[in-house]
Each structure stands twice: as C-alpha cells, then as structure tokens.
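[Q] Does anyone have a clean structure-token version of this?
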Amino acid sequence: MPMTPPGTNNDFSHRDELLAGLVLGNLSADEASCCPVVEQLPAEEQMLLKTLKVTHSRLEQAAAPPLSVAVRERLLRSARRSNSLKPQHWLIGGLFFILAVTGGELYRSKMQLASLQLETPSSRLHSGDYAVPLQAIQAGEMQNAHGEVIIRPGQASNLLTLNQLPPAPEGRLYRLWAVTPDGVKGCVHFLPDKGGNVVMTIPPQPTGSAVKLLISVDPLSSRQSPDAQPERTVLFGAV
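[A] Here you go.
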C-alpha cells in the first residue's frame, strides 16, 4: 500500500497536531512520547517551529482577545486547502489551525487568571515597591471602578490590578498610559473578565518613570497607531 503523502488530512490530524501541541506546550505525557523529535526534523521545519514558539509566547504575553469569527474561518479554510501543498506549507496551515482553535481557550484562561484574588497588598509588596491607586475621574458607569499599579523598582515587571471595571464597548478596549517627563506614553492594552477584574504583569517602563497614570477606553485601531493618544480617560492616579 502506498504511503500517505505528508500533506493529507490524516497526516495533519496526527503529526502536525502533535507539533502544534508542542508549540502550545500542552502535550500530555503520551502525546509527547509520540511527537516527532524536533532535532530529527528538516532544518526548515525546525526553524518554523522555533518561530511559531516565539510567536505563541508573544501572543500569551499580549493576551489578545480571541480571533473574530471571520478571521478564524479564513484560517480554518486555509488549513483545509488541497493536498498539493508543500509539506512545510501544510505544516504552517495546520499549526495556525490549532492556534486559531485554541486562541479562545488561551484568552479565557488569562481572563480566569484575572479573576483570582491576589494576596493582600502588604504581603506582595517588597522593599522599595509602592502602589499608585487608580480611581474613576467622574461619576457614572465607571464610578465604582478602582485599582492600582504596583511599581517594583529593579524587578522585571510591575503589576496592574483593577476591579469593578465595566465591559469595554464593542470595538474598543482599555489601555494603561504613563504620563512621564517626556510626555504621555502608551502601555498595555487589556480587557476585564466577566467580573470586571484585571490582574496582569506589565513592563517596568514607562510606568516606572511616570508622574501620573491613566486608564482610557480607545478604539481597537489604536493598537496599530504609534502616535495614538488616550481618547477617553476613565481612571486616574498620581504617583
């Protein structure tokens, strides 16, 4: 019986799904034992897997919302393309198929993490750390929202926590801003969980150099604009 070409659906459902699991880091012990040994793969596939691992790591850190239905469908159609594709192209399609399917799960996991209760501020502060409280700037739907940024000098990250934050309007998301001596600088984008909570580590700068911190509600398109400025400020804190 002739061997199944490497670009078939059967091959994708086994070999490439295992490689996708390797990229995502969620293989079981049994799956790991069946997964191809990376060092024995062609150099081109090894480089591809390395690139996808880096991409996945950055997606985890960004905690972006799940793919839209339209984008996800395009990825699914791409992954189901004809068997005439080159093996490495099929591998790319297969891995992105798995990333598309699991993207929502990754996002939900991060949102669940944001709902966990942290230990008391006094127990998580280290010597030299300090908290910058964030409060609503006016009455209305945001009046109960509050939180803080823990500035941790000399450490690899600072910490943002928020509570009772309303859902962002459709097509918008929240963003943290730092008002520094050099101007207003954008920090992380984020969305609260269903309970209105956010718990996330953030880069040490520019919040570490801030004299004021802002939370704004901005359009999704602002993520691609290097010159974006806060559109509607809802929370404020002075350092």
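[Q] Thanks! Anything notable?
[A] Residues 87-115 form the longest helix (29 residues).
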